[in-house]
Amino acid sequence: MDPTRAFVKNVKRVVVKVGTAVVTRDDGRLAVGRLGAIFEQLEKLNSRGFDIILVTSGAVGAGRQRLKYRKMINSSFADLQKPQVELDGKACAAVGQNGLMALYDTLFSQLDVTSSQLLVTDNDFKNADFRVQLCQTVDSLLDLRSIPIFNENDAISTRRAPYEDSSGIFWDNDSLAALLAMELKADLLVLLSDVDGLYSGPPSDPRSKLIHTYVKQKHQKAISFGDKSRMGRGGMDAKVKAASNAAYSGTPVVIASGYAANNIIKVLNGERVGTLFHKDAHMWIPVTEIGPHEMAISAREASRRLQALTSKERKKILMDVAAALEANEQFIILENDADVESAREAGYDEALVARLALKPTKIRALAESVRRLAEMEEPIGRVLKRTELAEGLILEKKSCPLGVLLIVFESRPDALVQIASLAIRSGNGLLLKGGKEAKRSNAILHKVITSALPETVGTKLIGLLTSREEIPDLLKLDDVIDLVIPRGSNKLVSQIKNSTKIPVLGHSDGICHVYVDKAANLEMAKKIVLDAKTDYPAACNAMETLLVHKDLTNGGLQELVKELEQEGVTLFSGPRINGLVNFTKANTFHYEYNSKACTIEVVNNVDEAIEHIHSYGSSHTECIVTDDHKVAEHFLSRVDSAAVFHNASTRFCDGARFGLGAEVGISTSKIHARGPVGVEGLLTTRWVLRGQGQVVEGDKGVVYTHKDLLKATTNGF
Length: 717
Description:
eight-stranded mixed β-sheet; seven-stranded parallel β-sheet
């Protein structure tokens, strides 16, 4: 549940208003399918004990369409050639209201719900006795589980004309809904529209962003409205006025789409749907807080300032970050301990708690890794290729930052330090979203790191997102964010890939294998297998499946099993090993334990081991233990994973151990970067051409030489 929607837990009485654009189709006919879906939601809520009150528009539009059709049928061809007189709005209202209620009654009857009609006018509310009677009647209907349906009685209203007169106690059905919500003491008002909610500008403008929570002091003068409703008298401007009036009188309001499935139920389940208006919204969201789009823009601007610094200045920033981590060690530990305690109380798995914990030694190690990163060769602006295209025309290919990175990671707060330091070293802006279980740890680490950034760059270089509901908005910002790196499960990676146009660098399951060949040195194999599983069982590069050659089943297998069991590793068996050992059978080979547990299976040869890895692995890290170099080379060349090792533990697959300084993750993708992603994986290239006034002119005046100047320099020419 979104924290800003927690109030829905106490909601009992709900007013739902459907606008003309929701009630009718583009051709003016009633949108029967859409209304049916809305009424099914109302029936479910009614049966769950909610008091449902419906306010509807659409009578005038529906009546106009029906009368136009009848007039056309009854007109001669000559009559149709004459200028058509606009139909009387009040007559349209009378005809349309009859048809509207007939449809509503039919739909509700199909759902075994009783509905009732109440038509009101502005003048009615000027009478105090009417207001008392209105409340009593509605209470009686709700007690009988009947759904009252309100509409303004435009047919006999004393307004000069529908859609034109905006005077009075209410002036359209949005303001009527707000008035009824206050009069009937509703706990929530839902205004259904043809758009997802209130936007910062016209919804058709791609620069407009959905506002999830309306703060009057922040948004009142900052938004601009598009056209009014295509058929009704209101529009978003009218809805905002009505919503503001109701919200500041004590009734929360949500403006949401009536086109999207189950939106009313989603609102009442506390999901962040549409735009919320609440009298306390200014206390939840600071007026000065920037949204996801502004956060991304700020990170981009700060990254450009970072790139403008000298290499020495960027190096100093990292040194300052390292010093800040050590200086604030006790505060970091304090916040981290609170996260660990909360995780244990919540019943989280011990493997996750292990990933969550930050010890003093870990913080000092992180600080040292940041210093090593600072001492590395300057990555920005390196000349990768220099070519003389023609005399006096020199082309260079140079390294440069990607721009703005969005990293979504789970559990491990130390990942925040690694990712932030890599972003600084590579000159990139950064947006971070960590797991909720590490909320306090991430917050203090972010504060410590950004406090070390100089004013010339600004603290907005690194933004920390606090709510997962912000992620969908960020994934739409393909014009600002250049790369998304999700660190987590396959499900997380797939969800993000399916939700964005931004390139995604996948870091998913770490289902790593160790294959012990028949020609393996058994003592070496024991050491590698134990290290791969027990050095850090929760790591993504830990061994999850041990494959053993069939020739080792008469001794070597038992020795490996004994070593693992002595270290407290829980073993699961594959089908082929089942009769040789007495383990619980594994449910699947494609499983990441993240704990002191692994699966063991027997294979006939190296090719069968390779086939098993390709069938059940995650393309992360695989190892072969053998003294047969021919078999080893066959394994290394055939296994299609990001990292493949011979006689070395899978735990070596790590950015720091590879000499990359740190890593944002281990990519199992094949495009752009693969394996541990360090600074180089966060860079791209650009071309710089220096000339002396050359022009193409159909290539007539240019003699191309295409001389490799970088190679010539390297060779000492």
